[in-house]
């Protein structure tokens, strides 16, 4: 059993906009243990999303390493990276990012569908569907499996997105402002879902700029000036 | 799995996909119809030439002809590849109705119907003697009179549907035919006397071969009569050609080469007897009719090239539509990649869409094309009756019905090329889609 589930060390990230160089992350280091519920906060533009994308392998750091269960994901081959995105981490976006042509059930099953071959799908279809149904039940989406995303409210869409992120039971759940686009009551509902998951043992890293929301996490990491703030 | 599912959803939900299917269907429809009709015309024309000539022809272009043909025929008939032979005279003549002083230049063919009908299907071109080729030159009114068969265009006119009307009883024409006999050296044989040989014939039948040349310009009489008219019966009997039919199993080109060898040996042995043997050519029916068939085949090639351009246009249409589709689906691409879809998976989704569009479009287009072709003659009949509009000029192609025999090979080539064109058109946009980086897309679409 590794001590940390994920650990970033000396992570740098630049964005080049023409001649201007935007140094967003200037050597960020952080580590999260299994079962933790960590919030990343910071001002708008401080690089929270950038950091989370790097942790989720949606982006590469310019410098530094990200170790997931003690292997450096920045050195992964593209095939292994796809596998990492598919089943090691689950990503929840602020703007849900569901596929409009697929039903709720299909959206939840998406990671399983992506990783199954045609034959594998035919063989495991029943188990996969049962898992999706189970998740939908947990997330209060029982009656909505056959609906399309445009027929759902924002809160429901975010719950579908959480279901999708959990589909393959990834060790790590990454959520980028999961409540940012919702009113406070609905946002609270989503937070409760996350807290329940965490109590069941799910490791969660959540980005938020709302300090009251951050308070509900075990630990808060503050990003400022491209570095992790003091006192963490 | 999701790739297929997504591909189908993209097709069903996007009006652009329907547009692409319609474009493919239209192109396939057009190509299927025109290629079928055109290749049908060419095939029909070739077949008509083939059945008019037999498989192989030993002939001279000289109006004097060549002698010793019966000896050569005896030799030919000993050959295992030869099924039947027929000596033929082709020459120029003047024909006139005896009751009028008008005359017209015609090409006269002298044939022995007993032999000729074993070599060619000329017998089927007759109307009153259909199935009774042997008696072609025995007029129904009085079989003892010398009969003359006349190319149909000289006797009858097509009605608006391309058919030739016939009286149930053959007309009673008396026709004088004159030829200009030549000596073996090619000079007029009867200088200072009558110059021409004339014989009176009676109309016995018309011949409708479907070939414009013979149908407008030919008359046919018995070999003996024509030999006499052209003075090719003395001192040695001469003819202009020997038509040969081979046995079904033999390869025409090989058998023709064999006949050519026989002929060369034959001339080597008999060259002392006649200089005329040297002017003789041995050709397969294809080479013999090359001049007639070539322009039509050229036309076919040209239209095929034109349709390759239609294919390029299809590729372009698909390219534009797919660029649009990929553009509208970048967010989906980002999402799929965030959950572990590989570049290949993404390309696969869009290529599946294009393959399905190609398959669906060509299925619709081909079905519509087959349906249209099945009914093309009915449709043309209707437009001619209603508006006097013929789709095909009958005088050019000399056909009754528009050919609509589908060629399975051509059809499958068209369908395969349509699908290929779709894949080709989608290839670039699909590759562009697969190369997108997830964060970039998802960040941009947040704005
Ligand atoms: N692809 C990009 N190209 C150029 N600049 C970028 C890009 N992505 C992010 N940035 C810049 O990097 C900085 C950090 O962006 P990031 O999205 O990580 O901030 P954030 O902390 O998540 O902000 P917010 O709270 O508003 O979501 C911003 O100034 C942003 O403009
Ligand atoms: Mg952000």
Question: How would you explain this protein's 3D organization?
Answer:
The complex is a heterodimer of chains A (232) and B (447). Chain A has 232 residues and is an alpha/beta fold. In chain A, 37% of the residues lie in helices and 26% in strands. Chain A has one domain (35-64, 77-228): P-loop containing nucleotide triphosphate hydrolases (Rossmann fold), CATH 3.40.50. Chain A is built from seven helices and ten strands. Chain A has a six-stranded mixed sheet, with helices on both faces. In chain A, strands 2-1-4-5 form a four-stranded antiparallel sheet, with helices on one face. The longest helix of chain A has 21 residues, at 118-138. Chain A is globular, with a radius of gyration of 18 Å. The model of chain A has no long low-confidence stretch (mean pLDDT 91). Chain B has two domains: 2-46 and 293-441, no CATH class; 61-279, no CATH class. Chain B has a six-stranded mixed barrel with strand order 3-4-8-5-7-6. Chain B has a two-stranded antiparallel sheet with strand order 2-9. In chain B, a hairpin with a 5-residue loop joins strand 3 (82-97) and strand 4 (103-111). In chain B, helix 2 packs antiparallel against helix 14 and helix 10 (330-338) crosses helix 15. Classes of the chains: A alpha/beta (232), B alpha+beta (447). The interface between A and B is medium-sized, with 34 and 27 residues. The structure holds adenosine-5'-triphosphate and magnesium ion. Magnesium ion (MG) binds next to helix 1 of chain A.
Count of β-strands of chain B: 11
Class per helix and strand makeup of chain B? alpha+beta
Q: What is the number of helical segments of chain B per DSSP (H or I, 4+ residues)?
A: 15
Instruction: Return residue spans of chain B where pLDDT drops below 50 for at least 5 consecutive residues.
Output: none
